[in-house]
Structure formats: structure tokens, C-alpha cells
Amino acid sequence: MEVTLSSSIVSMLPRQQQGKDFACCYQGGSIQVIFDTAIFQISGQLANLGNLPFVPSFNASNMVPGQNVSFTDATYSWSVPRPVATTMTLMPQTINGTVVASSISGNFTDYTVSLAPYDLLPMLAVQPGQPTVENNPSQVEVYVDHDTQLLNTQALAAGSTLRFYGLVFNDNGTLRMDCAQVNDGVDFSPQPSAAQQAHMEKAAVQEIRREGSSSLEQTIRVITRQP
To answer: Average pLDDT in the 116-137 region?
Structure first.
């Protein structure tokens, strides 16, 4: 949710919790985790990391809000408000977006995907004070190879809205995914930009109903522009 590099703290929203302290300590809300001594690692669920046309990296300096991260801690005390992470592991996650372009990159096809506006990556990137600035948090380069499971019925082509599951990396400000699976997505309407919203005209709609000829009711809609 939030990365504070100056104090080595990451604010996380837990999705799965287990262990002896679950019942009293971690239920509900977010957790602020200290990661300054943690070992950073990448999930081994995808075996093709060494074949990617970029260097996949996950560490304290390139972690960004919206990534799916699993952490472990050796001990926990209720009197300590912030647990100290032993490990921080980048985990696969799902994004929903529309393909806008594609190109060949080595043994992979690189699909440029425009994310849904409600995706965590663009939503959380606008927080002030984040140590890592992303070039375009609303866009992910998704890399698909022959090992990727294609479970989609829509065409994997420009204009299609799909779900992509895999590891999301921050590569010098560019978000890139090593994709393990593709499914049909959920259509969405992109949110208008601030400039578009500023130029939108407000209008009030009023319905006037009156009895017409042959006792038929007529409905008249009056649209009035608002300042």
C-alpha cells in the first residue's frame, strides 16, 4: 500500500494470515512492517525469470505500492507495534487491462496493457512522498512466452480486455510482468483525465408529464446546462 524508504517501513494490507498470533494481533486493518534487515526474494512459481528480456529485480529500493508481497517474521510481540520482517517475497498477482500494442522481444511477446483505473498500481502510485516514481503506473508491459497458459477466449490482441496473472516488477520506473496465465478480462470505462473533467458540462434533467391526445400520457425531457 505504501513504501517509506527513509524509515524502512512498508504499510501492507494483509490478504492471507496464519500463525499463533493471528487471533489477537493481525486481524483487520493494515500492518506497518520494518524491512531494513529483511532478505528480499522472488517467488519461485515462475521458472523462466532468467529468460526475460529485462533483468527481474525486487529489493528495498525498487519496491512500489500495489505489488503483491508476502512477508515473514520470526517473532512477534503485541507490545511492538511494527513487526520486523525476516523475508520479503514478491508474489504473483492479477491485473485487468486492455491491450494497446504488442511487439516481439526475444522469445517473448511484449503486450502493452493499459490498466483499469481501479487497479491498485495506478491508484496507490499517486500518494505523496513515495521514494520510487513510476514512469506510467497505469501501464504494464506484459511478457508472454510459450509457457504462458492461454485460457482466454478473447483474442490476445490490441483492443481486447484481459486478465494477466504473473510477477510485476519495477524496472527503473517501468512496470513489467512475467506472465504465467491469461484469462478473459472485465470491460471497464477509463476514467476521464482532470482536463476532461474540467471541460465536462453539467446538466440538469427534468421530466414533464402531461396528458396528450386520446388520453395518452406524453413525457417531455428538458435538459438545462449548469454553470
So the answer is: 85
Q: Pick the residue with more confidence: 14 or 92? A: 92
Q: 156 is written with which cell numbers?
A: 490476445
Average pLDDT over residues 62-74: 89
Helix (H, G, I), strand (E, B) or coil at 194: helix
Q: What is the pTM of this model?
A: 0.76
| pLDDT at residue 61 is higher than 50 | yes
Closest to 6 measured CA to CA, from 33, 36, 26, 28? 36
Q: Is the pLDDT of residue 192 over 70?
A: no
* 3 has pLDDT over 50: yes
Strands (E), the chain: 2-4, 9-12, 31-34, 39-42, 69-72, 87-90, 93-105, 108-115, 139-144, 149-150, 161-171, 174-184, 202-211, 217-226
- In degrees and rounded to multiples of 5, residue 183 shows phi and psi of -130, 165
Strand order in the sheet with 2-4: 2-4, 9-12, 31-34
For residue 182, give the nearest of 142, 152, 157, 155 by alpha carbon.
152
Dihedral sign, Cα of residue 55, residue 56, residue 60, residue 62:
positive
Task: Name which of 61, 64, 87, 65 is nearest 74 in CA terms.
Answer: 87
d(CA 173, CA 121): 12
Candidates 65, 68, 78; CA nearest to 27 is: 78
